């Protein structure tokens, strides 16, 4: 009898202590996650000191006239590629720039397409790009990332800003890859003259990073301490979680009314998508290719508050809303332009999710959250965040 009492007491003590132990472990993981982000922030500043610009998102080289993935990275390389030599990954950087991986396989300089798993650097999980709180690991993903650059508070034309592999602005009304329908739909709502779309694209890209475009610290007129440079991104573990999956084939109206993206969540289990909702999977899932600069893999928007839904109008080439998310309780980390790391709660003031995104120079309709994502809209931020 006494033995049973002792066992019962031990069981109660274990039950009481286990949550505390788990909480302590998560606190340690969260601290490590924050420290990784600080190192990335330092790397961005060192990169800027060396080259007088931010690491470019969606850049690289272009082998024209070939559809061979081993010879064409399609100008899709992420901002993280340029960061590697500044986070003590010089060996990986040299493999990429020389086009020769650790196994001696030869590719073009700057590597093949970022979805080409035969190139060893693309398949590596680089610890500096991973948050320890995120359990996602291994195939079918390639090398994952939990840190994504901020493209601002307008989700439209997020892959535009320079030239793609056919010498045209992405989505500028030509038949150039990756498509025509998206810009045709958008242009009908904004201008009858498709020739004006490139200028409209420039007005839509309001973040500290602008894909296929050079940005510098001097462009951040709102102040580096008031502008988000990057945010966390939870990766998929195959459970249709809102924070870690991309809802596929969302209607184009989500680009004009972001709440429609959030409305794709399962009303009975709001932290998940319903079983009927298709999501991007395999090595097209969220954060599944650290070297790919498209927003599905390594970029975020400050439209919906942290840990809300993410959705694409198509696949990984589609337009859509990429929401900052994490495995931490109640929020996610962001990296500010000055290198500070802050934890933003899910309840941050985020304005009107039914509002249409705005153009260059206008105040963000997404409240404090949207304002933190813009580089030069001159919003006055007088709140703690």
Describe this entry's structure for a reader.
It comes from Rhodopirellula sallentina SM41. It holds the Pfam family SBP_bac_10. This is Secreted protein containing DUF1559. InterPro entries: DUF1559, Pilin-like, Pre_pil_HX9DG_C. The protein has 385 residues and is α+β, with helices and mostly antiparallel strands. It has one domain. It is 26% helix and 7% strand. It has a five-stranded mixed beta sheet. Strand 4 and strand 5 form a beta hairpin.
Which structural traits does this protein have?
two-stranded antiparallel ribbon; Secreted protein containing DUF1559; DUF1559; Pilin-like; 7 strands; Pre_pil_HX9DG_C; 26% helix; alpha+beta; five-stranded mixed sheet; 385 residues
List the helices and strands and how they pair.
Elements: H1 2-51, H2 79-83, H3 90-98, H4 120-123, E1 147-150, H5 181-190, H6 197-204, E2 228-232, H7 259-262, H8 295-298, E3 299-300, E4 311-312, E5 320-321, E6 331-336, E7 341-345, H9 367-373
Parallel strand pairs: 1-3
Antiparallel strand pairs: 1-2, 2-6, 4-5, 6-7
Provide a quick synopsis of the model.
It contains 9 helices and 7 strands; from the N terminus they run ααααβααβααβββββα.
Assembly annotation? single chain
Q: Average pLDDT across residues? A: 82
Quickly count the helices: 9
Going by helix content, strand content and strand pairing, the class is alpha+beta
Beginning-to-end CA distance, first to last residue: 56 Å
> What is the helix/strand order?
HHHHEHHEHHEEEEEH
Q: Which bin fits the share of residues in helices?
A: 25-40%
DSSP, total strands:
7
Q: How do the strands line up in the largest sheet?
A: 3-1-2-6-7
Using the alpha-carbon principal axes, give the shape. globular
Number of domains in the coordinates?
Answer: 1
Question: Over the alpha carbons, how many angstroms does the gyration radius reach?
Answer: 21 Å
User: What kind of sheet is the major sheet?
Assistant: 5 strands, mixed
Percent of residues in beta strands: 5-15%
InterPro entries: DUF1559, Pilin-like, Pre_pil_HX9DG_C
Organism: Rhodopirellula sallentina SM41
Protein name: Secreted protein containing DUF1559
Domain DUF1559: 22-350
